[in-house]
Amino acid sequence: MSPLDEMDLARTLRTQADRPDLTPIGLDDIKSTARGIRRRRRIGTGLAALAIVAGAAVPGTLLLDRDAPRVDDPIDDPDVVQLEYGREVPLDLRDATPGELPTTTGFVIDGRTVQLGDDLQIDDPGTTQQAVPLGDGWFVQGYAEGEGEVGWIVDADGTTADGFPSAAPAHDPATGRTAYVVRETGPDRAELVVADEAGEVQWRAEVDGDTVPRAFSGDDVITVVEPTTTAESRELRRVAPDGTVTPVGIPPEGFADLDPATGRVTAQVDVLADNTGCFAVLDVATGEPAWERTCDYGLLDFSPDGRFLSAGAAYRSGIGDPTISVLDATTGETVVDFVPPQGLQFAIIQSAWEDADSLLISVEQSDGEEPAEYAVLRLDLDGTVELVSEVLPYAANAVPRLSLLHPQAH
Amino acid sequence: MAGGSDRTVSGRGADRDAEFAAYMAARQPSLLRTAYLLSGDPHTAEDLVQTALAKLYLSWDKVRDQQMIDGYVRRILVNEHNSLWRRAWKRREHASETLPEQGYTHAPDDGLQAALWNFVQTLPRKQRAVVVLRYYEDMSEAEIARVLGISPGTVKSQASRALATLRGRAAETDALAGYRSDPTDTDREGEEAR
Question: pLDDT for B70-112, tens place per residue?
Fold first, then answer.
C-alpha cells in the first residue's frame, strides 16, 4: 500500500496554491480599504497590531508616548496624537456633526428597543443594562423577570444564541476581546469565559460565583469579586488563562474605575456637607495617591489605554453633570473641558470611553423654552463633537429616552 | 479622529507608501496563495488579503521587522478567515444550490491530490490553518503557535487530528483505497526530520 504521508499533503497544497488566476491588489485599493476600516472601527487597530506582534500586552503608557514624533500618515492614523492641553470645547447637540453609531457598545431607546452597532435593532430582552461586541455579534446583559441577572449571546442577525445567569461583561476595544461569566457551574461558583475578536473562546476558568470581569491586563482578566455579606469587602483579583487566581487588592471606599495596566483606581476620598467631594487616583496596592487629590472634578473612568480620565463636576446633583472633562491620568492636568454654552440646560446622564480617543455621553438638553431633547454624543479628544443617535424629544414616562449600554456607563 | 492642527508633519508619506508598495510587491503573491489555501475560494482569498494588507497599512509605522510583519499578516489572514467562516456558518440555513468549487488541477494527478484537497476543505478552520501553515508555509510548531496565538501543544494536537482525519477520509474513499489510514514509519521519519 502507498502511504498517505505528509509529503502528499504538502504536494497537494503546493499544487492547489499555484493558481494563475489570483488577482494582485493595488495600493490604492488597500488604502481605500484601510480608510474604511478606520471609519468603521474607530479603535486602536495599530495598538492591537503592535500588541499582537509583540506577542504580549504592552502597557498603554508605553504605547502612547506623547513625545513621540508624529509621522505623516495619509490615512490619518490617530494612534499617537500630540494634544494641546487646557482647551475648552462648546458642547451643544444642535451643533454636533452627524457621526457613525458606536461600534463597541449600544444603547436602549425608550426602554424597549436595543440599538447594537449600525444595523441591528432588537426588542429589549429584559431590562438591558450592558452590551459589548462578541465576535460578529454581541454579549448583552440585563435583568430578566424571575431569572435575575442574565447574559445573552446575540448573533449578528439578532438571534439569541444562548442565555444564562451572568453579570456585567468586560470588553477591550484595542484587541476586540470580551470576557463574561456563566453562573451555572454550581453553588457559589461561576465560569469566566474569554473570547477573542472573532468570538472564539480563548480560555475558561472557574471563579467565585460573585466574580465580575472588569478589565484586561495582558492575557489576564482583572475581576471584582462582590462581597456576599456586609462583613466582607469587594476584592480585585487577577485571573490567568491557566485558571490561576491572584489577589490584586481591596479597592478603596468610593472606588469608581480601574486602570489594569498600572493598578491605579479612581475613588471619591472625601464627601463634604454641601454634596461636593474630593477625588483621587490611588495605587490599589499601597493606597498612595498618584497625584494630588482634586476637589474641582469628580473623577470617573480611565480611557482603555490608561492615558486619560473622564471627569464630571465635583458637585453631584443627581440629575447629571453639566460638563465633562478629560484629564491626563498620570498628572491630573486638564486636557479638554467640554462645556455647554451659557443659558443651555444641559445634563450628562451617562458617560463611557468608546475607545482610547473618544467618549460617549448620553445627554438631556433644553434651551428653557422648548421641551428637552435626548441624544448620544461622541466627544473626541481633538475637540470634535458628533451626534451618534437620533435626537429624541421629551416624552412623558420615558426618561431617560436613551440609555448607554457600555459597562462604564454611569 | 479628524486631523488636528498641532500634529507634527514629517513629510514621510511618500516614502512610507513606497516602502509599503515594495513589501506588497514582494509578498502579495505568497499571501494570496496562503489565503486561497485557507479559504478555498479565489475571490475570498483576494478579499482576505486586501483586508489583511489594509490593516497592515494602518500599522505600518509600528511594525517594521520583516519576520514580525509576515507573522502579523498571516495572523490577520487566519482571523479574518475565521470571521468570514462565522458569518458563513450563520447563513448556512439559507440553502445554496452552488456546489463548492472543485480543486484546481493543472498537473497530472493520480486522484490523490484532488481528493486530498477536497478533504482539506472539510477540515475545521483551525486545523486547516495549522495544516496550511505547517505543510505549505513550512513553519515550525513554535512559529505557528506565535502566528495563531495558541500554544505549541495545541498546534501539535490540531495537526495530529487533521492528519488522522485526512487518513481516515482517504481510507474510506474507494479511489484511494491503497492509501493507509494509520501513521507509518515514513510519516514519523518525516516528522523527526522536520
Answer: 877 888 888 777 655 443 333 333 333 343 444 444 444 567 7
- Nearest beta carbon to residue A13 from set B49, B106, B132: B132
Q: Which of A250, A276, A303 is the last residue of a domain?
A: A250
Average pLDDT of chain A, as a whole number: 81
Contacts (Cβ under 8 Å, ≥6 apart) of B88: none
- Our count of domains for chain A comes to 2
Residues B84 and B32 reside in one and the same domain: yes
Same-domain check for residues A393 and A259: yes
Phi-psi label, residue B70: left if phi above 0, alpha if psi -120 to 50, beta otherwise: alpha
User: How many beta-carbon pairs below 8 A join chains A and B?
Assistant: 227
Q: Which residue of B has its CA nearest to A358?
A: B1
Q: Is the N-terminal amide bond of A400 cis, ω within 30° of 0? A: yes
* B46: containing domain: 15-89
Note whether A289 and A389 are same-domain residues. Answer: yes
Q: Residue B159 — φ and ψ, nearest 5°?
A: -65, -40
CA–CA dist B50, A296 (Å, integer): 49
Q: Which residues of A touch B144 (CB under 8 A)?
A: none
The enclosing domain of A279 has a CATH number of: 2.40.128
Domain encompassing residue A153: 125-172+175-250
Q: Which strands make up the sheet holding A170-171, listed edge to edge? A: A170-171, A178-182, A189-195, A201-208
